[in-house]
Amino acid sequence: MSKLVLYGMDISPPVHACLLTLRALELEFEYIEVNLAAGEQNNEEFLKKNPQHTVPLLDDDGTLIWDSHAICSYLVDKFGQSDELYPKDLVKRAHVQQRLYFDASVLFMPLKNICGPFFYKNVTTVPQEKIDNIRDGYNHLETFLGENLYVTGDALTIADFCCAATASSLPAFLEINPETYPKITAWLARLSELPYYQESNANGVDKYISIFKDALTIV
Ligand SMILES: N[C@@H](CCC(=O)N[C@@H](CS)C(=O)NCC(=O)O)C(=O)O
C-alpha cells in the first residue's frame, strides 16, 4: 500500500471533495495543512510539487496529482474496492465527468472569483454579476438533480462529493433558498447523513461561511 499525503486547507471546498473521497474509500492518509493566507502555496518547495500553487495536492509515493477532480478519480480508480463511486462503464463515466467539469468551471469559479480577491487583495465589494453567476450554477444543479437522488442518477459518485463540497460553501455568498431550490436542499441534506460528511466537509463549511458573514457588500 502506497503512502498517501494530501496537502490541503481546512476551509477549501476542493480539499473537502478529496477528504470525502478518501474517507468513503476508507483510505489511510497523512494530511498536511498549507497556510494559503501566509502564502505557503508559493514557497519554492510547494511550487516544485504543484506549479499551479493550489490545494488540494495529492502525493502518492512521489506521484503528484493536483486538482480535486483528478485526485478523486485517481483515488477510486487505484484504490476503490469497486467502481461504484466512479463507474468504468463508458456512458456512466461520461456523465460523472460532465458533472466534474461543471463543478470545476460553473460552480467553483464564481466562488474563487469572490474569495480570491477577498483573501489576497482585501476586496470586500462584490459586483452583482458575480452573484448572478452563482445563481446560474444553482439553477443548472437544480435541473440536473431533477427526480434523481444524486447528480448523475440514483448512485452516489465522486461528482456528488465535488459538486456538494462547492455548493455547500456557496451560501457564504448566496443562500440556497429551499423553496427555489428544493432538489439541491434535499440532496445536500441526503449527503450530510454520510458518516464522514461532518468531519470531511461540514466543519470546514461552517468556518468558511462564518468568515464571510457580514464581510462583503454587493454592488
Ligand atoms: N480546480 C481546482 C481548484 C483549486 C483551487 O483553486 N484551490 C484554492 C483553494 S480553494 C487554492 O489553492 N488557491 C490558492 C492559489 O490559487 O494560489 C481543484 O479542484 O482542485
In short:
This is Glutathione S-transferase 1-like. The chain has helices at 13-24, 44-49, 68-79, 90-121, 128-145, 158-169, 182-191, 197-212; strands at 4-8, 30-33, 57-60, 63-66, 125-126, 217-218. The protein is α/β, with parallel strands linked by helices and 219 residues long.
The N- to C-terminal Cα distance equals 52 Å
- Give the SSE order as H and E letters: EHEHEEHHEHHHHE
Distinct small molecules: glutathione
Strand order of the largest sheet: 2-1-3-4
Sum up the overall morphology in one term: globular
Question: Could you describe the 3D structure shown?
Answer:
- The protein has 8 helices and 6 strands; from the N terminus they run βαβαββααβααααβ.
- With about 220 residues, it is α/β, with parallel strands linked by helices.
- The protein folds into 2 domains: about 5-80, 3-Layer(aba) Sandwich (Glutaredoxin); about 90-219, Glutathione S-transferase Yfyf (Class Pi), Chain A, domain 2, CATH 1.20.1050.
- The strands form 2 sheets. A 4-stranded mixed sheet has the order 2-1-3-4, with helices on one face.
- Helix 4 (about 90-120) runs antiparallel to helix 5 (about 130-145) and helix 4 runs parallel beside helix 6.
- The protein is globular, with a radius of gyration of 17 Å.
- Belongs to the GST superfamily.
- Pfam families: GST_C (PF00043), GST_N (PF02798).
- InterPro entries: Glutathione-S-Trfase_C-like, Glutathione-S-Trfase_C_sf, Glutathione_S-Trfase, Glutathione_S-Trfase_N, GST_C, Thioredoxin-like_sf.
- Homodimer.
